[in-house]
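[Structure tokenization] protein backbone as discrete codes

[Encoding] learned vocabulary of local backbone shapes

[Begin record] amino acids and matching fold tokens:

___
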Amino acid sequence: MSLTWQLARRFRKSRSKTGFLSFISASSTLGIGLGCAVLIAALSMMNGFQKALEERLLQLVPQVEFSAVEGPLKHAAQLLQVSRQHPQVVAAEPIINTQGMIQRGSEFVGLQLTGIDLQQNQTVTQLHRYTDQASWRRLQETTHGVLLGQGLAERLQVSPGDGVTLLTAAKSSAKGAANNWQAPRRQRLTVVGTFAFGGQLDYQQAYVSLATAQQLTGLGDQVSSVRLLLNDAYQAPKVARELGRHVQDFVYLDDWTRSQGHVYRDIMLVKLVIYIVLVLVMAVACFNIVSTLVMTVQEKQSQIAILRTMGMQRRAVIRVFIWQGLQNGLWGTAGGVLVGVLLAWQLPNVIQVIEQALQVKLLAADIYFIAQIPSQLRWLDVLLVAAVALLMSLLATLYPAWRASQLQPAQALHR
């Protein structure tokens, strides 16, 4: 083993007169290193997007929600009790969802209004994480208070303490009324503050207390939906189906994979593409290893022949050229992993510098739920990239090494 390693190092260090062989060898090492660095950084970026999805988006949108098809949930208490007994359910809360229009002066804006139980909200929707403590306290203390998304508040040009008018649809109880609709309900609300989640929710979402929502919708002491928070958000479809068997009302059975699942699927699709690109990039980089070793075999025919006449076995010759090719892979992988890890750790800062230099914004806060490129380094991805690079380097050495072992000493020395 020591002899074959030393011979491989000597063959690798030797240079042809033109330097062309050393150039191909260096390009193969550089290609492998560059591929490892870029792929580690790209995978870390996609891991960052997945983490942001789990920690931000899934904390505000319902993970599992049972909504009445029409009117209130008649057996909401039983559904809450059954849900809280499920091992995957961390918390369950009753809510009211309704649509309406908010008026400020001559400005009318449509919005989604959610009435929440302010005593349980800290364990379910986590809204308190996206607003300041003063706004959260005012929402709890104000009888008809409303918490607006920051974008919605800026559009209406309102601040805490200002009054707005909320219009919600109302049905007529009179028989024979056209479509059973009547004039919308109007309710004067006081703006208690804003929340800043990011993306379109800041422009179309508002929150009130559950009692205020019950008064606005005329549901009395009933609710229209039950929302769940889970231990594992990715179990949402399974949990929804299991609990759906115990629901006695006619409900819409929803989970986040239906409303926001396209975001997660996009992230997973990009990660799959990156894994495919990983193999292809390494394969292209390793073609240079094949070229280097084939040219080395041609150049070192006489040395190989002398070694064979001195008693070196074919297996030892194969190991010499395998070691030589792996050295390119080892150096390239080590350098690429080091650069990739450093780049992944500093990726948000690097992207910020690029944005400032080019005067562009890659992620607009008013569209996406995050304002900058995230990054989360996972050592499993680093090991995977390194393993694929070394495996491809090893495979690239097999054919040239086999050709070297097939040289006939007499013919090689005769040339």
